[in-house]
Every structure is written in structure tokens, then in C-alpha cells.
Amino acid sequence: MKLLVIGDEKRFNKYLPDLPIVGQVEAVVVGRGTSDDDIIAQVGDADFIAADAVSPVSARVMDAFPSLKLIHSEGVAYNAIDVAAARERGVVVCNNAGVNAGAVAEQAVLLMLGCLRHVVEGDVAVRSGQQIQMKERLMVAGIRELGDCSVGLVGLGAIARETAKRLHAFGCDVAYWNHRRRTPEQEEELGVRYLPLDELARTCDIVSIHVPVTPETENLVDAAFLASMKSDAILINTARGEIVDQAALAEALEAGAIGAAGLDTLSPEPVPADHPLALLEGDAANRLVLSPHIGGVTEGMFRRAWTTIWNNIAAVSAGDEPINIV
Predict the structure, then answer these.
(1) Catalytic residue positions?
(2) Taking a C-beta distance cutoff of 8 angstroms, is the pair 83, 326 a contact?
(3) Residues 120, 285: contact at Cβ < 8 Å?
(4) 275: which residues sit within 8 A by CB, 6+ positions away?
(5) What is the radius of gyration, based on Cα positions, of the chain?
(6) I want to staple 315 with a disulfide (CB 3.0 to 4.6 A). Which of 17, 123, 260, 320 is the partner?
(7) Strand (E) or helix (H) holding 228
(8) What confidence score (pLDDT) does residue 28 get?
């Protein structure tokens, strides 16, 4: 049996689980971005494919591998896989649903705290000999504790639910909006209250984005949405950059229309040097905390992901049904 891995070889080797199936399968690793022609030429045939979450798997590759039984996304996303073609060919497609939920939730809370505690400006102040001046200014201006904030979650999927759990430990009041409202019992269990989206944007101290990119959610957070937020509110995005109008957010920060923003994702990626948010200066730049889309790429996430992938390979090899079929 042969496994084609489309991704990073060092990462693949690092997260090999201690499972019997690993020794029963020959693995061939090709780098992300390898053309279909090169994949077909290098691999010949494969029973299984495990692909980096942004790496495409085409119908052409599927047709070149008559033994193919399973295509598995390394992550949660699977939109780069031609699922319709796989279905037509009887090939099972799986993902790692929820595998990074806790990791991204941690990143969301980190960005909230980073904005509240002025970490960007504070770091610069200490390094430039302005520590006391900034400390004295903030003691007068005031520093909000996370537990004193109402947090509105836009979406209530796995990551948002894990975020809510962590926010409760801080004592936050947590509201949410979702296309499908949860039952009263589910809301009580999660400790969240429902708000219409416009009311959530208008009333919450922190608005945290947790929806996928769809035609309905692209630029969901636009100039009008930002204008409706409190002037000292914080926007957090650990979902996808396309959900937020990037230019509108830059303008809102420059104008002081919102208090701050913490972003793990921007659009486009890779982020160009002339991105409107990267070009912010002065106070606007100080109120923006950026991270390089690392919320979900923790060691724990990759260990869990590859354990699931190999367990699903074992299941398919034995004629059993794998988990997380998409």
C-alpha cells in the first residue's frame, strides 16, 4: 500500500504516530505546489492521499491512481480537493474536523488580551526607554480586564465553542450570533446568549469572528458593520481574512472608529508589504495586533491530525468506514 503526502516532509516525519499501520504503508512525499504531471510521474499509483489543507487534489490525479481509496485533508479545510470528482470515482474524502479548535481559541484569547493590554505599543515603549511614561498614561487612561468585557462570537462552530469555554474562565459575558440559533438547552450548556448580528456588533466590547468564508460571509465585516461598533470596541479575526473588508478596517483604525483589532488572518495571503493594514502608522498601528496565521498550527494539532489520518488509513485498509467523511 502506498500513501502520497502533499506537503512538508519534515512535518510529516515529525508527527508520525506510533501505530502499526505506519509500518505497513510506503509513503511518498511531494512538496506543496508540485504539479499534477510531476506528482503522477513521481508516484505512479497510490492507495491514499494526505494533502496539506490548501493543496489541490484534482480529478486528473485521481484518474492516474486506479488504486486510490481515500483522500484526507491534513487540516479542517477541504475546498482544494475536487470532492465531486472523488464522489464520482468512489473515493472517500475526509478532513480533520475540529482538530484545531482549542488551538485557535487560544489564539483568539491571546489577541483579545494583546489588544486590551496594549502589547504592541508597550513593547515599543519599553525598548525605547518610555516605560514609565506609558505606564503612567495607561493608569489614567485605564486598562480593561478581559473579564469586564462582553464578547460577541460571530458564528458558533467548534472554534467559537472552545473560545466561549476559555472566556468563561475569565468571567466574560459571552453572546453569539449564528445562522442557526442553538436550543435554549445548548445555550445554557455553553453559557452563551443569542443576539442578532447587528445588536451584537453594536453592543459587545469585543467582536470575535468564527464563520467560514462563503458568498454570504465575504466582507461581512464591512464599513457599515465597523461603524456600528462601539468606538472603543475590539475586533478579533482568527477565521479568514476575506470575512473582513481590509481597507475598511484600516480606515476605521486610522479614524479611531474602533478601539483596536487583533488579526491572525488577513487577505490576501501571503500578505503583501503594501497591504493597507501593514501600512498603518502611529497610533493606528499601535492598536493593531497581528499574528502570521498560526492559530491552528500547534504541535498538538498536528499530532491529533496525523493520528486521525493514519487511523482512517487503517480503517479503509480493513474495509471499515473512516471518521470525518466530508
Answers:
(1) 240, 269, 293
(2) yes
(3) yes
(4) 246, 266
(5) 22
(6) 320
(7) helix 223-228
(8) 98
C-alpha cell at 115: 489588544
Residue 14 pLDDT more than 90?
yes
% of the chain with per-residue pLDDT over 90: 97
101-290 sits in which CATH class?
Answer: alpha beta
Task: Look at residue 77 in the predicted model and tell me its pLDDT.
Answer: 86
Same fold, 2-99+298-317 and 101-290: yes
Cell numbers standing for residue 214: 462563503
Domains in the chain: boundaries: 2-99+298-317, 101-290
Secondary-structure class of domain 2-99+298-317 per CATH: alpha beta
- Edge to edge, the sheet with strand 70-73 lists 26-30, 2-6, 48-51, 70-73, 92-94
Q: 30 has which bridge partners?
A: 6
Mean pLDDT value of segment 218-240: 98
Question: Which own/partner contact pairs does 160-169 have at CB distance under 8 Å and 24+ positions apart?
Answer: 160/208, 160/210, 161/101, 161/190, 162/101, 162/102, 162/104, 162/105, 163/104, 163/105, 163/108, 163/109, 163/208, 163/210, 164/190, 164/191, 164/192, 165/105, 165/190, 166/105, 166/106, 166/109, 167/109
Q: Write the CB contacts of 126 (distance below 8 Å, at least 6 apart in sequence).
A: 134
Mean pLDDT of the chain: 97
Residues 114, 117, 118, 122: is their CA dihedral positive or negative? negative
3-state secondary structure of 89: coil
